[in-house]
Structure formats: C-alpha cells, structure tokens
Amino acid sequence: MIVPWRDRRGRLLPLKATVLAMSFIPATVLAYWWAADMLGARAVNEVIHGTGDWTIRYLMISLAIAPTARLLDWPRLLTVRRIVGLTALAYGVAHLSLYVGQQNFHLGFVASEIARRFYLTIGFIALLGLGVLGWTSTDAWMRDLGRRWKLLHRSIYLLAVIALLHYFIQSKSNVSEPVFVSGLYVWLMLWRALPMAWQRSVLVLPPLAVIAALAAAGIEFVWYGLASGINPWRVLAASETLRFGLRPAHYVALVGLAVALLAAARRVGGLSRSRPRMA
C-alpha cells in the first residue's frame, strides 16, 4: 500500500511527512479557536472564512513550488506538490461543507444560493475544478491521459483567477490580503512566462518583484474604483508612500526581493561548495 509519507519501497520521506503534518496545523488552530469560544458571536462564519483563506493560500503555495524548486536548485521539493494541491482541495471542501452545515444541510437552498449569487457560483466552479484536478492527480491518471494530463492540469492557472475573484468579493471592503495574494500570483505567472533559460537567473527577479508590486497596486486601484465607494486615487496614493504604513503592493515587492536574495544566496553557497579545496 502506498502512503503519502513513504515511497514505493516503503521508505520514509521526511519532507513529505513534514509537509503533510503541517497541513493539519491551520485546521487544528481554527478548531481550537472555535472550541475555546475565541471567534466571537459569528464563530461559524469565521471558520468558514478561515478555511476559504487557507484554500487560497495552499493553492498559491502549490503554484510556487516549481519556481522555488528551480530557483533554489531543490528538485526534491517537487515531490510535495501533489500533497499541497490536495490540501488546498481539502480546505475547499471543508469551506463548502461548513457553509452547507450553516444552512442546516438544506441542499436545495444551498443549490439555489450558489446559482443565484455570483460569488458563490464562481467559488463552486473553482472548487469543482480543484476536485477534478485532485481526482486525476494520481500516477494512474497521468499514464491514462498522457499528454492531455498536463493540458488538464494547466487549468489550475484559470481556476486560481476564479478563486481569487471569489476571494475579493467575499472579502468585501477590506481586500488587502486578496490584493497581496493577487500580486504574488502575477509574480508566479510572469516567472512562468519567462524563457526556460531565464527562469534560473537571479537578475530577472528584482524586475519581477517591481512589476508584480505595480500590478498589485493596479489591481487594488481597479477594485476600489469598480466595487466600492472608496476613492481609488487615495488608495493608490497610499501605495506610493510609506507614511501610512506598508500596503499590499509593498509586501509583494518585499516578498519578490526576498526571493531574489534567497536565490542569490543559494547560488553563492553552491559556488563556494563546488570550489576545489587548496592543498
């Protein structure tokens, strides 16, 4: 029997076991807060939103695994991509299940709400898509589908956009985290659009950080301009200065620059280890 934390020979895989164990931490924390009555009068709503937040976060982590593995020369990291993707699916299923429970399991009412409310419709579509990708993530499906498997699983990029739109609408007036996550998503897509030879280059990473940060500021501007009564120019002006504290675009830039520093440090460390010792 194949288990997630062992290879086909039954040997323990510490990295996969660690990632799998860590996937339970957010759920455990949410459950503890709920049981300890630390979530206020609308505890169920908070847990629903919490599981939804972690669905998006794990989805973005799964998309970040390939760039991280390549930039840090850590190919073994790719072995946990399936676990991370399935964790995103698990939190998404929990997100929907808690909503159904909140509606006293009136499935007809839930179905009508999903059909009637746009943000629920697109959230359900994203979850269905994740379910298909999770179901077909096995080695057997990979063999059966052949080249079509990779084409199918590239739909994750579109599903991520749909999930982010659901995240924005669900967050209502405070969209700081959706803007931040969207900026990271732009960074990931820009990196994937680079020629293969450039994807390992440290030199392209600072420009990517700047472009992704500008994109995050632009997304925030457009969202506030279209979906709220807040003056988007004031929001944009806040992103151009640190006088009001760090904005989502600033955090996107900092994450992008941190990635560049880590990749540069990895290159320097790799070069120093490869140099022959002097007699």
Write the layout of secondary structure elements.
Layout: H1 14-22, H2 25-35, H3 43-71, H4 81-102, H5 107-116, H6 118-135, H7 139-145, H8 147-153, H9 156-171, H10 176-193, H11 205-227, H12 232-239, H13 248-274
Helix pairs in contact: 2-3, 3-4, 3-9, 3-10, 4-6, 5-6, 6-9, 7-8, 9-10, 10-11, 10-13, 11-12, 11-13
Structure commentary:
Helix content is 73%, strand content 0%. With 279 residues, it is an all-alpha fold. It has two domains: 1-170, no CATH class; 172-270, no CATH class. The relative contact order is 0.08.
Low-pLDDT residue intervals, each spanning 5 or more residues: none
Q: Treating each run of at least 4 consecutive H or I residues as one helix, how many helices?
A: 13
Number of domains: 2
Q: Can you write the helix and strand succession as a string?
A: HHHHHHHHHHHHH
Assign a percent range to the helix content.
over 70%
Q: What structural class do the secondary elements suggest?
A: mainly alpha
